[in-house]
Fold:
Amino acid sequence: QSQLHFSSISVPSVKTEPVKCRKGFKACKDGLECVMYSHVCDGEQDCKDGSDEDGCETLCKTGWFSWQT
Ligand SMILES: [Ca+2]
Structure:
C-alpha cells in the first residue's frame, strides 16, 4: 500500500475540483489522488478509498491492455 505523493500537482484550495491526472494515471473516486494505471487492479489499494481496485473484475476480465494486441 503505497502512499503516492505528487508534489508537481498542486491542488488548489477548491476541493470540489477533481484532481487532474497526468496521462497514464487514473483518478481515484474521491478525486483527490492519481494512481498509475500499473497500480490499478494490482490487488493493493492505492487510493485512500481503494477505488483504484473498484470494478477490477470487469476491468481485468475484459483486459484493458489486451486492446493493444
Ligand atoms: Ca492498486
Remarks:
- The longest strand covers residues 25-27.
- The chain has a mean pLDDT of 78.
- DSSP finds one helix and two strands in the chain.
